[in-house]
């Protein structure tokens, strides 16, 4: 402690009495230091060669020294008021320097926290705007949904049905064109369809085309899905019926061979 005071004060700044007192204190400290060094040298010769035992002895000595320091009453650095004033001034300057360092670190930390606060506020503002826009959109959708009346829904449904009917008619027209182009219209007695000897000589009914057969089958499925079978009569040309059955477009009734229905396509 005396060395720190002497290092922080120039000798020319103290009076002769203060310098003399400090020199006496220094001599006392040096004498005590020399005494301690001699005791340490004498103690080292008594140490055991075992590292473990040396560690135990050092621990015991350290604990004893600690107890001694705890029981020792603090002493004044010096009785001279000038020395105490200089020492107090040096300690105050040291403390001020440390406080300035703490203050500088606190300011840097405060600036960093301010930057973080600005970023967090900007992020919160953005999220608030997004939330507000989303809530406005939800409210607008609710209002639009409330404005939709049953009449508008019905009108939209009718328009969709009309579009589906128009699309169905276009498909049927396309199917009819294909059948008319590639499938010949049947004629009475055509394709070797021979009459038996006991057959009636009355004229047969006009045979219907393949498109008309398909139309009857489709209408039957749509009108009476619980009973989709169509009865085969004299207007159905047998080769057409056989073709529909062979290619899996139609199937016969399990109990009545004169009934057929349109195959269920998945």
Key features of this structure:
68% helix, 3-stranded antiparallel β-sheet, mainly alpha, 3 strands, single chain, rod-shaped, 266 residues, chromosome
Describe the structure in your own words.
The chain is mostly helical and 266 residues long. Helices cover 68% and strands 3% of the residues. Strand 2 (250-252) and strand 3 (259-262) form a beta hairpin.
Write the layout of secondary structure elements.
Elements: H1 2-8, H2 16-45, H3 51-71, H4 81-147, H5 150-182, H6 210-223, E1 230-231, H7 238-246, E2 250-252, E3 259-262
Order of helices and strands: HHHHHHEHEE
Shape: rod-shaped
Task: Report the total helices.
Answer: 7
Radius of gyration: 58 Å
Mean pLDDT score: 79
- Order of strands in the sheet with most strands: 1-3-2
> Helical proportion?
55-70%
Q: Describe the largest sheet.
A: 3 strands, antiparallel
Distance between the amino and carboxyl termini: 101 Å
> How many strands appear in the DSSP assignment?
3
Give the class from helix and strand content and strand pairing.
mainly alpha
Note the beta-strand portion: under 5%
> Residue ranges: pLDDT <50 for 5 or more in a row?
1-12, 189-204
Organism: Takifugu flavidus
Coiled coil: 124-151
Protein name: Centromere protein K
InterPro entries: Centromere_CenpK (IPR020993)
């Amino acid at each position: 402690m005396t060395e720190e005071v002497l290092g922080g004060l120039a000798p020319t700044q103290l009076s002769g009495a203060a310098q003399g007192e400090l020199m006496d204190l220094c001599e006392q400290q040096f004498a005590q230091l020399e005494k301690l060094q001699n005791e340490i040298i004498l103690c080292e010769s008594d140490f055991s060669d075992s590292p473990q035992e040396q560690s135990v002895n050092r621990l015991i000595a350290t604990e004893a020294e600690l107890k001694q320091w705890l029981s020792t009453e603090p002493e004044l650095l010096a009785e001279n008021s000038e020395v105490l004033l200089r020492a107090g001034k040096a300690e105050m300057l040291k403390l001020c320097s440390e406080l300035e360092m703490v203050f500088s670190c606190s300011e840097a930390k405060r600036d960093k926290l301010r930057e973080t606060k600005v970023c967090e506020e900007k992020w919160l503002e953005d999220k608030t705007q997004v939330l507000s826009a989303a809530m406005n959109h939800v409210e607008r959708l609710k209002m639009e949904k409330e404005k939709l009346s049953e009449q508008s829904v019905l009108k939209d449904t009718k328009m969709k049905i009309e579009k589906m009917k128009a699309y169905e008619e276009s498909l049927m027209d396309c199917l009819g064109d294909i059948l008319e182009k590639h499938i010949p219209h049947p004629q009475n007695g055509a394709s070797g369809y021979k009459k038996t000897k006991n057959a009636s000589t009355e004229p047969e009914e006009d045979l219907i085309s393949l498109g008309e057969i398909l139309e009857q089958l489709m209408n039957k499925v749509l009108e009476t899905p619980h009973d989709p079978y169509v009865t085969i009569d004299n207007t159905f040309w047998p080769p057409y019926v056989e073709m529909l059955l062979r290619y899996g477009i139609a199937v016969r009734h399990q109990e009545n061979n004169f009934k057929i229905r349109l195959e269920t396509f998945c």
